[in-house]
Amino acid sequence: MICAKFSERISKSTKSIISFCGNKFHTEGALIFARKKMGNWEEEKEKYLKMNAEAKRKDCVKLQSIPTWKSLSDSIKLPEPIEMKENCAINISKNEILAEKISIFEGDITTLGIDAIVNAANSTLMGGGGVDGVIHRAAGPSLKEECSTLGGCPTGAAKITGGYKLPARYVIHTVGPQGEQTEKLKKCYRNSLDILIEKKLRTIAFPCISTGIYGYPNLPAAHAAAYQVRKFLEDNTDKVDRVIFCLFLDEDKKIYKGILQSYFPISH
């Protein structure tokens, strides 16, 4: 008897060839293959979550080596302050506490040995250019395999995966808006921080979301980021140890050192 072969999708991430001979489906081997394929990233995820940051990357940057905003502002000459937008009211009674909850990190986000780093992803979550590509390359192929099971991500939303070979335990992927859309950008920060709390994680680092090829102007983007982080920390002060703004461009470094003086003021 001649066997006809056809393909059937077993999951979002894998296909299995099932052979049909007469009235019998020979599925055992195909299902074993499918389970093995599906389980690869899950096994890798569990393996790496059990490893400490130094075991994954010897030159990782630990939280203890990153100064808080209060410490940094006491140790360097800051640029002129950049005023908050008029409608951004803050609870001034928490200024001193919150100045110890944020940091600026001028370096490679993939070196941070913390709970979670945020990926400025595209809607497919399958990797791309800029920081998205850098994170995927550093994490290894299992990150893309897990991302392929998530069904993409709409603008402003966020989804979490393992960090795999990254020293960070998790990656929170968020899709920023193209062009200046303030509320959608704020949602990227808010939804990423909500996941941090839901997963009982305590440290997180953000790149500059939507700037660069997505066309969001750097200064308005920094206003949105600083305001949303400030409001979130006012409501969740005891649930977060550190929020890190990871900066690469000199323009962003100057902007954040100016803008944080207004959103996270310190008494000298």
From TrEMBL:
PROSITE patterns: MACRO (PS51154). This is Macro domain-containing protein. It comes from the Eukaryota. It comes from Cryptolaemus montrouzieri. Pfam families: Macro (PF01661). Residues 89-264 form the Macro domain. Coiled coil: none annotated.
